[in-house]
Write the structure tokens for this entry.
Amino acid sequence: MDFPGKGLAKGLAVTLGTMTKRSHTHQYPDVEPDLPPRSRGVIALIEENCTVCMLCARECPDWCIYIDSHKEEVLVPGAARPRQRNVLDRFGIDFSLCMYCGICIEVCPFDALHWSPEFEYAEHDIRDLLHEKERLDEWVPTVPAPPAHDPNGEPAKEQAAAAKRAGA
Amino acid sequence: MPAWLELLLRVALVLAAFLTLPLLVGQAEHKVMAHMQGRLGPMYAGAFHGWAQLIADGVKFVQKEDITPRAADRQVFRLAPVISLLPYLVVLLVVPLGPHGLVAQPLDIGLFFVLAVVGIGVVAVLMAAWSSANKYALLGGLRAAAQLLGYELPFILAALSVAMAAGTLSLSGIVEAWRPWWLLWQLPALIIFFVAGLAEIRRPPFDMPIADSELVFGYLTEYTGLRFAFFLLAEYVGIVVIAALTTVLFLGGWKGPFGLDDELGWLWTLLKIAAVSFVVIWLRVAYPRLREDQLQRLCWLVLVPLALAQLVLTAGVRVALR
């Protein structure tokens, strides 16, 4: 139905309708926001999982990961020669450079890097945004559990292989 | 009660209304506008839903430095905020709140007085604009002059229609003569009066003289601190005054639907003023600002002819009913 002033009436109806609904405001500092799953807040590091393979540092598009390490000899009883292993000395992520692409997390073969939804780490000085492995480790407890497997999806490779072996 | 005490009481009550009602309207505007836009509005000041926000604003304005530009015409520049505020205070004196003389100053030519005094607001705007020595202020002032002088005409013609219908210029007399069917009969006049009133107090969508996206802040550009706050207060008092006049002239003032007008008349008046103020805020949220030529077109090609037609209709019905 058309009548003169229809647009004006519609404008009034929209504003009045919005007023009767709940507002969208989140009272952020008072009330914690409900973040969506897989929020990219900060990158947490599980130091024990890191083998210093340097994949993350090399794949990082803006080179914001700094890694230092040294080799250590491990004497294995019964072995002919001592084994060598990498020991992590420094792992730093400069969050003033990081663009939160998540490639480092994707490429990490040993699940040492994880997304944490924690986002309240603003600093007054940009240089204070370079966080070392001690700080990155503090965020590990805030990493959410991985999402459940899709019931209609393909089973994981390991599962499929185990089932095959058991069946054969 | 001695005469001087009664006089003092009346003036004190009007002053109290002058100081509290605009704050209530301002707070309502904050909250209503916020919720109409899906926001919450002020929430911190005063701890409960930001009820003290305007008080906090006032305290802030008092602390601000009072700057007068070097090129400004000092005396005129400093006088303008007061002149913008004062007429509305005077208007509140003659607006009847209830029956049997519940009015600060009953006046036989109340309507005439009100229309004359409200017109002074135009002078304040022009003073502020011209004395600021700022091109944006001047542009805002020129727009204000064109707008306010133009809208004065339908404003007065619409008020004239209801005065003619009631056969009196006294505001109390108009309310007494008012009948519910006048809502229909005087509907065009009501709409014209309300729209022209919005333009008179320069409320959005008729805020071209201020037009913050085009003219910085129009004639308010150079004002700071308390003087700026005076202009803001004048805007909110303006809402109260326009709402009160609309209530008294067109919505039957203290007359309510259940009788009991003698006891509850003042409440009806206040409720109607609140409702009209809500519509003023609502229109601000819903509509964008008109363009300058659209503004003039609306005034001269729509409102003025409509107001004249309403006058003819009113006169015709008056003659027929005689």
User: Anything to note?
Assistant: The radius of gyration of chain A is 25 Å. The domain at 47-140 of chain A is CATH 3.30.70.3270 (Alpha-Beta Plaits).
